[in-house]
Design brief:
The protein has helices spanning 2-41, 46-84. It has 85 residues and is mainly alpha-helical.
């Protein structure tokens, strides 16, 4: 039983990393590109950084949403298997 709990925690960490990495990478790269643009043009408006990130994350969720939900449902089924046996 103790091994199943450790396996479930291990799988939880990996699923969190797997699902959050694309969102964080897109946000980070887009933030870097916008920061370089703002430094080059000396435009320091907060909405220039905020709005493109929101749009990019929303678009990424639309594109990767099915994969994320499939991964989560597979993970949940696996955790229930660990709990059962």
């Amino acid at each position: 039983m103790y091994d199943n709990v450790l396996l479930a925690f291990d799988e939880t960490v990996w699923i969190i990393l797997k699902l959050s990495t694309p969102l964080l990478l897109v946000s980070m790269v887009l933030g870097l590109v916008i920061a370089v643009f703002q430094a080059a043009t000396q435009i320091h408006e907060q909405t220039i950084t905020f709005v493109p990130k929101i749009i990019a994350i929303a678009l990424l969720l639309v594109l990767l949403g099915t994969w994320m939900l499939t991964s989560l449902s597979d993970f949940f089924a696996q955790v229930l298997t660990y709990a059962a046996g």
